[in-house]
Each structure stands twice: as structure tokens, then as C-alpha cells.
Amino acid sequence: MKRIFAIIAGALAFTGIMNADNDRVITFDQLPEKAKTFITTNFADQKVSYAKEETDIFEVTYEVVFSQGTKIEFDSKGEWKEIDCKYTMLDEKFVPDQIKAYVAKQWPDVKFVRIEKGRYGYEVDLTNGLELTFDKNFNLIEIDD
User: Fold this and answer.
1) pLDDT in the model for residue 57
2) What are phi and psi for residue 19, nearest 5 degrees?
3) Where do the CATH 3.40.1420.30 domains begin and end in the chain?
4) Residue 44 and residue 112: Cα distance in Å, rounded?
5) Which residues contact 102 (CB under 8 A, 6 or more apart)?
6) Would you identify the CATH topology of the domain 89-145?
7) Burial of 89: CB neighbours in 10 Å, binned 0-12, 13-18, 19+
8) Rounded to whole angstroms, how far apart are CA atoms 29 and 19?
9) C-alpha to C-alpha distance for 137 and 76, rounded to whole angstroms
């Protein structure tokens, strides 16, 4: 009996792992309401190329890519997690003031191209090729080039 239970438990675990990385293309209307509002408020002039829902073992995220290359990732509630402007500059309204001040002081002519907001802080990419990581108190903790 223990052996049968172990086989069933293993099969269920394997099935869960196999279904963990499911990506599916969705329509704009299938995004969380908060994500749709964010896009219509901040990117109304850009055309959505595609949107997709990404399902991992522990979370669901949404990715929206615009025709000019900008990509936004949202969490399951529709809060933005990352904004990546591949071919344009990131609007600085998405960057916290403390990070803008630090970058302006160190590199006055540099612009932002990507920002990622996480549980423990922020990560930004700059036009000079640097990637800066800040903790939740906006202290610089890492520089990658």
C-alpha cells in the first residue's frame, strides 16, 4: 500500500512540474484590470503586439510587448514588476526619486532603459551599460557592467 501511495504521489508531483511552465497568448482584455489600467494610462500611444500569461509552479505573471519593443511584466494582481524599453528610453516617472537623484549625481547624461521592482528593492539598467541594484531603502548594493 505504501508503494502505491508513493507512486501516486510521485506521478502527481511530476504532473505538477510538467504543467508549471505553461505560457499562453492572451488578449489585452484577459489581463488583470490593474494591468489594463496601467497600460491605457501610461502607454496609450503604443500598440500592443502581444500579451501572454506565464504560469509557474508558485505564481502567474503576465507579459505585454508593444510593437516598438517595450516589454512590461505584471504580477498576478496586475502590479508592474518590470519595464524594459529595448529601443527607447524609460519614462523616469517609473523610477523612484532617490534612484533618479543618485544616477543624476553620478552620471548626469545617462538615461534609464529598464527597471525591475522586486520584494527587496529595485534594479535599473542605464544607457551607459551599467546595471544598478538598490535595496528597499534605496541604498546602492551592486553595480554590474
Assistant:
1) 87
2) -90, 0
3) 1-87, 89-145
4) 20
5) 132, 134, 138, 140
6) Inhibitor of vertebrate lysozyme, Ivy (3.40.1420)
7) exposed
8) 24
9) 25
Predicted local distance difference test score (pLDDT) of residue 21: 60
The CATH code belonging to domain 1-87 is 3.40.1420.30
Q: In this predicted model, what pLDDT tens digit does every residue of 90-116 receive, in sequence order?
A: 999 999 999 999 999 999 999 999 999
Give pLDDT tens digits for 42-62: 999 999 999 999 999 889 999
Positive or negative torsion for Cα 104, 106, 111, 117: negative
- Does the pTM surpass 0.85? The reply is no
